[in-house]
């Protein structure tokens, strides 16, 4: 069952096709593998389609000294959404599964939860009933699963979960459900002196607990939604405790705001997969330097999932229309990616 979340509700919980894209019209497999100047295939998990070529052509143009499109190293900023862009997001955002698992782990200490909503719904895996509890019920889930811990406690909790928890459909660790083609793209950009950031609607502390090791993106280059925190000295033992109060929602127009606040430079490369990323791509497209906007289109129902305009998760509707109109790159998972997950290699 897919869960229908509005952006705010998603963050509260998570504290958190038919047409062809212009970039693929008349697209033909190239006879030759796209390579770097060293002769090595820099994006081996990407099929040799127009999208792969356009990415390599862009990077070559903006990093070549003397090129009219050359971008100084300091301005080579790339921003990536996380859910649905760097790893899967169906049938619900993975941070939601963490919150629900946390409630279940704490349940033996709270026998009253067996008859008390919203915890009863969580323990019975009754998502329909959980949604009926509304914002008040969702806030209760968050208060227990995310708030009240120190930052160190929360970091350890997430690390233990990401190292052991398995996806209910794929039966793989959640951290194994990252996209191999996107890992290669991040590494390719980094090798060409791009500074790569994650800019996600997911919880910043949730991502920082594991994303550095998985993606190779430093913690201080991860931007996400956050809740308020409180510092206490505690007689020589400083701690920062997470509070059950919203601080910043890094989704939709919050993304360019977060970029301006935490990065201070406009991106020249941005990648997303949903309407929640549209404003980030618009902001990137307004850069006076040559820029590149990339949307990931989920079209592979066999290897991953297929969804777009009407999906309850990762809705790709307004973003699709704007990408078509402005001829942004749209990567078709089924056709542009040779493999999806690292374990398929």
Structure description:
With 345 residues, the chain is α/β, with parallel strands linked by helices. The chain contains 14 helices and eight strands. The chain has a single domain (45-92, 150-344), classed as HAD superfamily/HAD-like (Rossmann fold), CATH 3.40.50.1000. The chain has helices at residues 7-14, 50-63, 94-106, 119-123, 127-132, 134-145, 151-162, 180-191, 204-208, 211-215, 254-262, 278-285, 318-326, 333-336; strands at 77-80, 195-203, 222-232, 239-248, 269-272, 292-299, 306-307, 329-332. Strands 1, 2, 3, 4, 5, 6, 7 and 8 form an eight-stranded mixed sheet that branches. A hairpin with a 6-residue loop joins strand 6 (292-299) and strand 7 (306-307). Helix 3 crosses helix 6. It is globular.
Question: Quick summary of this structure?
Answer:
This protein is α/β, with parallel strands linked by helices and 345 residues long.
Derived from helix and strand composition plus strand pairing, the structural class reads alpha/beta
In CATH terms, what is the architecture?
Answer: 3-Layer(aba) Sandwich
> What does the average pLDDT come to?
89
Number of spatially distinct domains: 1
What is the overall number of helices? 14
The CATH superfamily is HAD superfamily/HAD-like
Q: CATH topology, what is it called?
A: Rossmann fold
What string, H for helix and E for strand, traces the elements in order? Answer: HHEHHHHHHEHHEEHEHEEHEH
Distance between the termini: 30 Å
Radius of gyration over all CA atoms, rounded: 21 Å
Secondary-structure topology with pairs:
Layout: H1 7-14, H2 50-63, E1 77-80, H3 94-106, H4 119-123, H5 127-132, H6 134-145, H7 151-162, H8 180-191, E2 195-203, H9 204-208, H10 211-215, E3 222-232, E4 239-248, H11 254-262, E5 269-272, H12 278-285, E6 292-299, E7 306-307, H13 318-326, E8 329-332, H14 333-336
Parallel strand pairs: 1-2, 1-5, 2-3, 5-6, 6-8
Antiparallel strand pairs: 3-4, 6-7
Helix pairs in contact: 1-6, 3-6
